[in-house]
Amino acid sequence: MELVAEKKENENNNESSNATGTQAGLDSSASVSAAGSDSNSYTLTLNAKDADEFRERLARDLKAGLHPLKHKFVFWYTRRTPGVRSQSSYEDNIKKIVEFSTVEGFWVSYCHLTRPSSLPSPTDLHLFKEGIRPLWEDSANCNGGKWIIRFKKVVSGRFWEDLVLALMGDQLDYGDNICGAVLSIRFNEDIVSVWNRNASDHQAVMALRDAIKRHLKLPHGYVMEYKPHDASLRDNSSYRNTWLRG
């Protein structure tokens, strides 16, 4: 899978023109279009503060010869205590590993992470957009839910990597509705989940399901389950009592 990035052909000239064009296109309620050389481009809507931060990050990355991602991401890690399920203990155990906003930053971070097959059970590896914590109660998550896929441990690493690359390249439909993804290492299986912002938007929920199936090339027989986060809060469980299968 290809990540969103500017090609490096005529890099010096393109960096200068792209940075200038992007800066000129920002205003107090900016709809920002950041385009690289040739036809690669992406568009997002930002408020004034976010627009300024985005402009500064883009200009800095282009000047350094780096390839900006559409979103800044954070890897988090949770080492669960078996038998302990309280929300406070869960929050205390969430640790930020690294954040990145460029293709190069992603690969430097990802290549130094422990492979899923070597992670102890039970643990969770979270990949979320900057500003969103991997908690049901987070303001970006509280009205949303997650698609859940259960994998045999021997294949989970490959499917997780394919999903991560799809997120980096903004390749899933309704990408702005996606908050992040989680790899949960368990004793007998590994579980991958993709979190979205709005559980009541049936069209977006089902489109996300179809995009996940398509990009992961899920074999027939794999069942995807959906569960809203408010249901998880009520029964204090991420993966039990799912509401929707598809």
Q: What order do the helices and strands follow? A: HEEHEHEHEEHEEHEHE
Largest beta sheet: what is the strand line-up?
A: 4-3-5-7-8-6-9-10
CATH superfamily of the domain at 72-81 and 114-245: RNA Cap, Translation Initiation Factor Eif4e
Radius of gyration: 19 Å
Describe this structure in words.
Helices cover 34% and strands 27% of the residues. The chain is of the alpha+beta class. The chain has a domain at 72-81 and 114-245: RNA Cap, Translation Initiation Factor Eif4e (2-Layer Sandwich), CATH 3.30.760.10. The strands form 2 sheets. The protein has an 8-stranded antiparallel sheet. A hairpin with a 5-residue loop joins β1 (31-35) and β2. The longest helix has 16 residues, at 48-63. Mean pLDDT is 78; it is low at 1-46.
Short description:
The chain is an alpha+beta fold. The chain contains 7 helices and 10 strands.
Topology:
Blueprint: H1 11-24, E1 31-35, E2 41-45, H2 48-63, E3 68-79, H3 87-93, E4 94-102, H4 103-111, E5 123-129, E6 145-151, H5 153-168, E7 178-185, E8 190-196, H6 202-216, E9 224-228, H7 229-235, E10 244-245
Antiparallel strand pairs: 1-2, 3-4, 3-5, 5-7, 6-8, 6-9, 7-8, 9-10
Notable traits:
alpha+beta, single chain, RNA Cap, Translation Initiation Factor Eif4e, about 35% helix, about 25% strand, 8-stranded antiparallel β-sheet, 7 helices, two-stranded antiparallel ribbon, 10 strands, about 250 residues
